[in-house]
Write a structure and sequence with these properties.
The chain is mostly helical. It is built from ten helices and no strands.
Length: about 350
Amino acid sequence: VEMADTPVTKWDEEWENAAVKGLNELKAKREVLFKATKAFQTAQKDCQKAVKEQSKLLGDLDHDLESLSKNETITAEDWAKRRQGILEQRATIKRVKFVLPINASLPLRLMLGKVNLTLPVMDQRWQYKQEYEQFKLQVTYAIIALSMLALYLESPALDVLFYMMLGWYNGSVTIRELILKANGSDIKLWWLFHHYSSIAVSATMLLWYSSDAIQDFVFYFRAFTLYQGVVQVLQYRYQSAILYKKRALGESKLLDTTTDLPNRWSLSALVACLAVAYVWQLFNAYITLGIARKTSHWQAWLLFVLYAIMGIGNSCITSLVIYRKFRPHSKSGAYMAKLLNKSA
């Protein structure tokens, strides 16, 4: 006599099908994943070894080729062909290194330790970059709202929250940009230094908020933060559209960000707003210098130095970008581009 299906027998059948068989399949997939991961790591190590060997070989050949340039038995055309071959091989090595793990920068090692932060798949790098851009935009909106509240509400507690949020934002953006840079994004060193300076400004304001001397500067700080947030939103909107167009035309790298000014037209639209922001930074330096002379507070002296460096540095970097965009093919434009890549 066959037993009728009961809730218990049905549960036992589902357990057998779902749990036992499913678990065996999961174990098999885990084994495949483990072997693939080991093979991937082995291939990475082999590539790193080959890159090191080829880089050394090309360096030796390049050195020998420089010596051959003084030899009368080789023509300038033949020498140029050999030189071009070396440059092409170095470009190949650079493309291979782009997908290999690299050592994290010193700030990341100090904050996170010796950990591999290179994302192995390009889709993962793209997704991380997109999330970074959205994070900047959304937090900037929050900073704009908080700075408006701080302007209209005289509240020490709100000021503390305001300064802490600015410090957290700049710290988070710095870490994210360091990770992006480790994954191939061409973020200039100047903007990272600018974030460090902004963190120091926020920390100084937080330590100084209870002093009477800060009252001569706090209004300008809140208003500047509000204006800076609005400019950053405008900059993001303009440049995200430009980046989208440039990627569609194949003129932009996958991990380019809206940090740099990518196009002369967006640059022309934003340059006036950016100029006001940089002049305002210098004005903040002037105000804090006056406070420092009257009170001798170290916080005022530090803010003066930071704002002076940021104002002058931003003005110089933006001037280099403008010159490079409008004179890209001149010798001086090439020199400016080289100088920008080194110093910025």
